[in-house]
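Lecture 7 notes: from sequence to structure.
We start with the chain below.
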Amino acid sequence: MESRRLGKSEVVLPPIVYGAWAIGGWWWGGTDDPGAINAMKAAAHGGMMAIDTAPIYGFGHSESLVGEALESHRSSVLLLTKCGLSWTREDGPVAFPTKTPSGKKVLVRNDLRPESIRQECEDSLRRLRTDVIDLYQCHWPDPETPIEDTMGALARLREEGKIRAIGVSNFDTELLEKARCALGEVPLASTQPRYSLLARQIEKSILPWCQTHEVGVLAYRPIEQGLLAGAVPPERQFPPGDMRPTQKIFSP
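Predicted structure tokens for the same chain:
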């Protein structure tokens, strides 16, 4: 599969990356662990040698499945994960309320404080069964933590060899510019925005900014959670806990 360099970083990715949100079960009405593991192994054998996950995807479950499935493929598979959404923190800005797979109600909070980033990184390394994360991304902005503090913490993790490249997700152009400047000589490798035929807002400012500054773009929801793949007709019945029916794009 053709590969592409991610911005100015040393990370080289295939043009299609395996998205591992659904396999975590949370928000998607449960998970099929054996099926997920087999799917990731098949993807790796087929040349999709990069996988994107996050701690919030199943409250660690997605990362654990990725680590289990790809431990024997680690030398040839790139691991991309994120930080910044905490379900254990008791202070700070609330991102959204939700329930864990066990049914416990929790408040997920934005948290990009340096000490939180470091702890999240160590937890992700353990779950992913690896000693380095190829791309470590801020999942959502934290309005209460200076971006300079956040980028400084990520740069230190890179210096220590725990992560190879630094990325962000859901940042607007103003925050992208602040992050890029805060990193100094360390490249901001990428941003991960929503982008599909049904969501093209980033074409107005984010894509031009990324082209100007040579920052890579990893689109999430490119097939809109199955809708653009033709796999979700109007009569589709979703399992309990699957939140897609609550979105306007899934209404008849």
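Points to note: The chain has a mean pLDDT of 95. DSSP finds six helices and twelve strands in the chain.
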